[in-house]
Amino acid sequence: MRLKDRVAIVTGGGSGLGAGIAQRFAAEGAAVVCADINEANAEAVASGIAAGPTEAIAVGMDVTKYDDAVRLTAETVRQFGQVDIIVNSAGIANHMPFLEAKPEDFQRIMRINLEGTLYCAQQAAREMVKRGYGRVINIASIAGLRAGIGRTGYGTSKAAVIGLTRQMALELGPLGVTANAIGPGPVETPLTAVAHSDVTREAYLDLIPLKRYGEIEEMADAAAFLAGEQAGYVNGQILYVDGGYTAIGIARE
Ligand SMILES: NC(=O)c1ccc[n+]([C@@H]2O[C@H](COP(=O)([O-])OP(=O)(O)OC[C@H]3O[C@@H](n4cnc5c(N)ncnc54)[C@H](O)[C@@H]3O)[C@@H](O)[C@H]2O)c1
């Protein structure tokens, strides 16, 4: 029970990686707040958790709305008295080749993936610093480190999340709050069901030394580590959980 008596917010907690991380945190003893724009999904995950020994609530909210980020932290404190951990998993992907990028599409993905992370983490961190303890975990991506066809919006937003994570690590560290990111490789979720074509899937299997997609549970393992006491001296790091994808260059002879 690595997270006993901890209170965790997980944005994007209604689906995919966020749902898996919320469930893992609950299994590790944390009270969990599942925040998602899809309130029905967040409710389903939270009530599944609350049927077990740990407490969970759902908050319907849009991470791009500053007032919603304020309400998310306020609701968490009202319900559980504190915020110890926030995982920023809410995100979208889209296909955006550089020469075809449209302002509205670029702005939308930056607002959700980057601004949403900033607002939600900022509100939670303001609460964490009052108690001198906290963990911010941002879900970045391998696409934030390596370029990919059509990733002009997505990859750029995730590279910015990596930069933001380092910024938070610098400014929050002295106040007792660490900030790290996970850089997942491809994982089967509703997001990749739409975003990954057959060609993309084939390319990934070719490029990933472990020759498979990652599992939601493997991302939850990394999140539980970063959220726990054992990661107390880990700050400003990007933990790529990607089967070796970002480690390699030439892979054929
Ligand atoms: N699945 C992968 O292969 C993969 C790889 C690398 C990074 N990621 C990142 O992991 C995170 C989770 O992705 P996933 O694969 O679980 O996708 P997902 O679509 O299953 O989950 C994303 C969740 O975010 C929510 N969301 C979207 N916009 C929102 C908003 N404005 N406000 C609040 N909630 C909002 C969605 O409703 C959804 O429940 C994303 O940031 C994604 O970029 C995923």
Write the layout of secondary structure elements.
Elements: E1 7-11, H1 16-27, E2 31-36, H2 39-50, E3 56-60, H3 66-80, E4 85-88, H4 103-131, E5 134-139, H5 152-172, E6 177-184, H6 190-195, H7 198-207, H8 216-227, E7 238-241
Parallel strand pairs: 1-2, 1-4, 2-3, 4-5, 5-6, 6-7
Helix pairs in contact: 1-2, 1-8, 3-4, 4-5
The structure holds nicotinamide-adenine-dinucleotide.
The site of nicotinamide-adenine-dinucleotide has 30 residues, from helix 1, helix 4 and helix 6.
How does this model look, in words?
This protein is an alpha/beta fold and 253 residues long. The chain has helices at residues 16-27, 39-50, 66-80, 103-131, 152-172, 190-195, 198-207, 216-227; strands spanning 7-11, 31-36, 56-60, 85-88, 134-139, 177-184, 238-241. A seven-stranded parallel sheet has the order 3-2-1-4-5-6-7, sandwiched between helices. The longest helix is centred in the middle third of the chain and has 29 residues, at 103-131. It starts with 6 loop residues before the first strand and ends in a 12-residue tail after the last strand. The mean pLDDT is 97. It binds nicotinamide-adenine-dinucleotide (NAD). Residues 11-12, 14-18, 36-38, 41, 62-64, 89-93, 112, 116, 139, 141, 184, 186-187, 189-192 line the site of nicotinamide-adenine-dinucleotide.
